[in-house]
Write a structure and sequence with these properties.
4 helices
Length: 294
């Protein structure tokens, strides 16, 4: 009754929520919810998944995805098939890009997706071979609240995925072998970065990790949630945050696996992010262990 009165639990029989069920097992997601409520953390609203039956336009190999994004109005849902070369897509507000095994092969183009549109969704693409500048993503969301999920983003010149406004979601991606960074986020509020694999970025050691290189870099974000990512074998900090104005937290807290001059950084308590000059060895740091999960 006390934790119900405090708003930590709502009951176990939704929607009525009139029972407590003390003998039921507590799942991990329920426990995470209890902890977040107890600590007063801000909720992260994840946009609903798009039903594939709501597709407006199908895009096939040989079609111009960028041209079709220009031609169709805001809110259009695209389903993309096949391999597309040198595409640079500037989405409009609320456009949705779904992949059915589609690959965007940059061939030296600058960005796969870029621009200032709001509420863009990008799901399921392989994105590779883009010549994006340092500190910019091959998928580079400058507009509010982009959702970027279930993509394979690899072998791009700068950052794999970058977001820079609103409440973005980067979820369920594999982000490997990008030349500078795996993930970058700046000036966001209540964003979510979850369930990604971030590995082997800056593997050629082309960038000095003391500047900005490795697994990820988060700068001037408010209430950014980073959880359950597998961060490993990056040359540089796995997770790094600077210039934060309000608490930034991870759920759960665990050790960080990364490569930086043979050392690893540790994430030891809520609110204490890996610092690029805070390098401490961790036993078994170069092995795939449960401590690699953030």
């Amino acid at each position: 009754q006390a934790i119900a009165a405090a708003g930590i639990t709502n009951g176990c029989n939704p929607p009525a929520n009139s029972r407590f069920c003390p003998h039921d097992a507590i799942r991990r997601d329920a426990m995470a919810t209890f902890l977040a409520r107890a600590e007063g953390w801000s909720p992260v609203d994840v946009p609903p998944r798009i039903d594939i039956s709501n597709v407006d336009v199908e895009v096939y190999a040989g079609d111009s995805l960028s041209g079709m994004a220009d031609d169709y109005p805001e809110g259009t849902v695209f389903l993309v098939f096949g391999t597309h070369y040198g595409e640079e897509v500037w989405p409009k507000d609320n456009q949705v890009f779904l992949s059915s095994g589609a690959k965007l092969e940059g061939n030296g183009a600058t960005y796969a997706f870029h621009g200032y549109a709001d509420n863009v969704i990008i799901r399921g693409f392989e994105v590779t071979g883009y010549n994006n500048p340092a500190q910019n993503g091959a998928i580079n969301g400058e507009g509010n609240s982009w959702v970027i999920e279930s993509n394979y983003v690899h072998h791009n010149a700068g950052v794999g995925i970058r977001v820079g406004a609103g409440s973005p979601v980067i979820r369920g991606n594999t982000i490997n072998y990008n030349h500078q960074l795996g993930v970058s986020a700046d000036y966001t509020t209540n964003g979510l970065i979850a369930d990604n694999e971030i590995g082997f970025n800056n593997w050629l050691q082309e960038y000095t990790w003391g500047w900005e290189a490795g697994g990820s870099k988060f700068w001037s974000n408010v209430d950014l949630v980073v959880r359950n990512n597998y961060v490993h074998n990056n040359h540089g900090p796995g997770l790094e945050h600077e210039f934060i104005s309000q608490p930034c937290f991870t759920v759960p807290v665990a050790a960080l696996l990364c490569r930086s001059a043979g050392l690893c950084n540790a994430r030891v308590a809520p609110g204490q992010w890996t610092k690029r000059r805070d390098t401490r060895p961790i036993a078994g740091a170069h092995q795939r262990t449960p401590n690699a999960y953030q």
